[in-house]
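Researcher: Please translate sequence to structure tokens.
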Amino acid sequence: MCVVGQGLAHADIAGAASGSAAPVVTNRPSSGPITLVRLVVRHCEGCTIGVQRGLTNEPATTILPAQPDYWNGPTTKVRRGLAILAIPTAYSAGSSFTLSAPWEGNTEGVTNIVLGGVGSVGRTFTANQAQARQRATACWAGTVASSTTIHVSVTRRTMPGQGNKPAVFAIAWASPSVAVVGRLSPTTHGLLGNQDMYFC
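Model: Translation complete:
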């Protein structure tokens, strides 16, 4: 897996958004606007999606606000093709989304949703095109809107996992692609992931 960071990722989770339940945000400012992120997910029913914000200091980040530079947000499950996360709007720039599938093998990490890469925003990708990308990023440019929608596609691919043994990986990408920030990272058959947090 192409990873950024160290140690297995575990979000600090106090709640989730699904059905008619109100979204809950953990580790957020006591005041300030919230953005509802609707993720319309194909081929990953029951998968868990989370949001994190990790800003690198090598070199110093240009993403604003520069704090928090390490934040674990809520997670939620995909139900009927939809996952909803409520996050502080101010934290959206530099955030990344994680995806864990119940059918994944021992991959030694967690998948990040590829949000964009080379080329214009709004490009659509088939599974073959997504897996052919050699450089991409999971770092979202963010939004000031109170709600936004990101369409996510997921496919399965068997690759070497823990101990170099074959494992099923989830490869996830936004299609259409969305605005991104920061540098591009090399992928493994279109896969980005981390063992701690994806740093932007």
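Researcher: Any highlights?
Model: The first helix runs from residue 127 to 132.
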